Amino acid sequence: MPKPMMHLAQFLVHGPTYHSVAMWRHPRTAAAGYDWTHPELYQHIARVCERGKLDMLFFADLNYISDTFSGSLAPAIRNATQAPEHDPIPLLSFMAAATTHIGLGATYSVSHQHPFHAARLWATLDHLTKGRAAWNVVTTLNHNQSANYGEEMKPTDERYDRAHEFMEVCRKLWASWDEDAVIMDRDAGIFADPAKVHRIDHEGRFFKSRGPLNVVRSPHHGPAILQAGTSGKGRDFAAHYADAVFAIQPYIAGAKALYDDIKRGAAEAGRPPSACKMLFGVQPIIGASRAEAEDKQAEHNALVPLEGGLAILSGHLDFDLSTLPLDTVMAHRTEPKLQRMQTRYRTATGELLTLRQVAQNHGQSVGLPQIVGTPADIADQLEVYFDQVGGDGFMLSPIYCPGAIEEFVDLVVPELQRRGRFRREYAGTTQRDHLNQDF
User: Fold this and answer.
1) CB 110 within 8 A of CB 163
2) 7-289+369-435, which class in CATH?
3) Are the beta carbons of 82 and 362 closer than 8 angstroms?
4) Which residue in 12, 5, 239 sits closest to 103, CA to CA?
5) Which 3 state secondary structure label does DSSP give 130?
6) Domain boundaries, the chain
7) pLDDT tens digit string along 259-306?
8) Which of 119, 107, 130, 5 lies closest to 60 in space, CA to CA?
9) Across the chain, how many H-helices and E-strands are there?
């Protein structure tokens, strides 16, 4: 009986660092001669990943530079901890022009926008990519982002209640043009049938919108929807709307529990569990031998500055970790904001970690497990994780760029294909085609 196959996506940021704080200064990044600001780099990555038949390219995005650690912007700027980050949305069309199949996703926060603008933007991108657009729907992560918009950060429940209504308005707007509204009868002089274009007249707790959208029905009827929150409210949002969830779970047991919970939530929301794919983040480190890969891992991890790890962890927790001693045991802390990342505070065997250790690990991979070895070793580790969790696939994050992405596509993808664990050809042309491909 054939084994189930994996979905694979490539994680990107329109900036100098991804999950690795060391990425911008890694010798291989520097030696490659590419600049993260050059759009040609992203077209190159898109072509490489499409050659590897990956499901999608996925851009994370933040709209702030964090001053959470020590109350200063300096640590984040000095260490390039998720700063700077240029807007990834313009890159999607640029990358679409260089490819024909691979999905193109980006993060776009709903916290400080109106649904009409978002619905128009993403319907347009869905047209420009011919159905390959994917929107990672997020709410504000950090008080710094709210401050950039002149607002106070809202409580989690309110942010997600607002996000639910935001999506409902977008869905109504995307459906405001019937599929057959555009008739383009040149002889009669009728472009579209007015009876098939509808106002939505939405009035809710957070939004009003009259409609209709001034973008015709798009290939996906709106983009594929991605989600990356793992709070209770985030999981509920994913269960209702997400075509795929990007999750960070350092250990298999936690990944299994999250996988089962999201699938159960999708079923309770009246959706087939398979409609919401789970993509778990991993950081591959590949060598011609296991020793070489371990040397590459050690080289990379040694480049991560402790201050950078503390700055990025403070931003993700929205808590100033400079107020705590470095030898404090993180699992023993009782502050409410420090309860969000309990999976980072212990090793796989349950050993408790100090703030110094947690911050150093966070600067290396933001909690993504590092999978290290030869291409066959990497394939082995992916199979174990995949089979024990239950699927559906992985979000790949490099330690240097360019170079690491090409290594995975050229060395690991063929190994997975030989094992029957990854597609050899695309079965369709849209993002949902790839995510829903029946393996």
Assistant:
1) yes
2) alpha beta
3) no
4) 12
5) coil
6) 7-289+369-435
7) 999 999 999 999 999 999 999 999 999 999 999 999 999 999 999 999
8) 107
9) 16, 13
Pairing of strands 224-227, 7-13: unpaired
Pairing of strands 224-227, 244-247: parallel
Question: What count of other Cβ atoms lies within 10 Å of the Cβ of residue 71?
Answer: 11
Question: Does 160 show up as a binding residue in the annotation?
Answer: yes
Instruction: Render the burial of 248-277: b for 16+ CB within 10 Å, e for the rest.
Output: bbbbbebbeebbeebbebbeeeebebebbb
Residue 61 marked as a ligand binder: yes
pTM, entire model: 0.95
User: Which DSSP helix (H) or strand (E) runs through 418?
Assistant: helix 413-418
* 260 is an annotated ligand-binding site residue: no
Distance (Å, rounded) from C-alpha 415 to C-alpha 379? 7
Report the distance separating Cα 68 and Cα 318, nearest Å.
Answer: 6
**Residue entry with tokens 């994996």:** 6
In three-state secondary structure terms, 209 is strand
* Dihedral sign of CA atoms 44, 45, 51, 55 in order: negative
Six token digits for residue 196: 């098939």
Task: Name the amino acid, one letter, at 114.
Answer: H
Pick from 209, 56, 196, 223: which is nearest to 123 by CA? Answer: 223
- Over residues 127-164, the pLDDT tens digits come to 999 999 999 999 987 888 999 999 988 888 899 999 99
User: Is 107 known as a binding-site position?
Assistant: yes
How far are the Cα atoms of 30, 150, 364 from residue 35, in angstroms, in the given order? Answer: 9, 33, 21
